[in-house]
Each structure stands twice: as C-alpha cells, then as structure tokens.
C-alpha cells in the first residue's frame, strides 16, 4: 500500500449582509425617483440611466459583498464575490508571518484598499481578520470568520513536510 499525505486546509467566507441590504434598499428609491420624472420607462432618456444603475448595482453585489479565504499548503488565496474575481494569491514561501487580528472601525475599509502604513486591505467589515507579512515586507489584511484557524493552517503548511507511511 502506498503512503498517505495529510494537509490542513482552512476555508472561510465573510459576507457583508448589511451592505447587501443597504445597496438594495438605496436602489429602490433611486428607481422610484427616476419614474417620477414623468418619462416613459421605454424612453431612451429613462432606460439607459436605469440600465447603468442596475449594471453598477449588479457588479457591486456580485464582486464586493463577500470574501472567501483559502489557506493551506499552497499558501493563501482570496476570492471576492460570487465568481471569485478579483482573486489574490500568496504562495506559502512568500509568507513570512501570519497573525489573527481584530479590525477596529477606525482602521476598517470596505473592499480593496491600500495604504503605505497598513498595506493591502481585503476587508468587508470590522471584526476578525488574518494579517500577513510577506517576505518582501508588504502587508495584507483579509476579512475571515476564523483567522486563528487560517493561521494554524499556514503554520502547519510551513512546518509540515509531506510524509509517507504505511497504514
């Protein structure tokens, strides 16, 4: 019988439900105000702006309302939205340090954000997050429901070497 290899993998999704509801709630009055202008729904002057509003709202809801994080032997991969785009990948050999942090409202940003002091922020809400320091000194902070488990999976991937043995 051949040997088996065991890997620890963490996957978690953070969804910003309040932002989904707020985006939807703000879209309804916008459409109502457009209808109140007196134009027909089929008029190009009404149809094109409404189409643009719906496209922007759909892009927002599909790409900027959830973050899925996968950590394990391949490193950390972050997927945004329903379709997993945009995607960020950090191989395990590029991760120098990982820690579980709590994002306060004073440093929280929504979506993709970069600053010289805090680095890249891939966050949707306050609360638990995974903070990475890469080997080139760059920093990345990612919203995730259980950053301690993500850190553990990274630590095990860095220390574990695939081993084989007989059952």
CATH architecture descriptor name of the largest domain: Roll
Relative helix content? 25-40%
Shape annotation: elongated
Strand order of the largest sheet: 5-8-9-7-6
Structural class: alpha+beta
CATH class of the largest domain: Mainly Beta
Number of DSSP strand runs: 9
Q: Strand-residue fraction?
A: 25-35%
Question: What is the name of the CATH topology of the largest domain?
Answer: PH-domain like
Low-confidence stretches: 163-167
Mean pLDDT: 84
Radius of gyration, whole Å: 21 Å
What multimeric state do the chains show?
single chain
Q: Tally the helices: what do you get?
A: 3
Could you spell the SSE succession in H and E letters? EHHEEEEEEEEH
The biggest sheet amounts to: 5 strands, mixed
Number of domains: 2
From the N-terminal CA to the C-terminal CA, the straight-line distance is 7 Å
Describe the structure.
- With 167 residues, the protein is α+β, with helices and mostly antiparallel strands.
- It folds into two domains: 15-63; 67-159, PH-domain like, CATH 2.30.29.
- It has three helices and nine strands.
- It has a five-stranded mixed beta sheet, covered by helices on one side. A four-stranded antiparallel beta sheet has the order 1-2-3-4, with helices on one face.
- The longest helix is centred in the N-terminal third of the chain and has 20 residues, at 44-63.
- The radius of gyration is 21 Å and the shape is elongated.
- 19% of the residues are buried.
- The model is unreliable at 163-167 (pLDDT under 50).
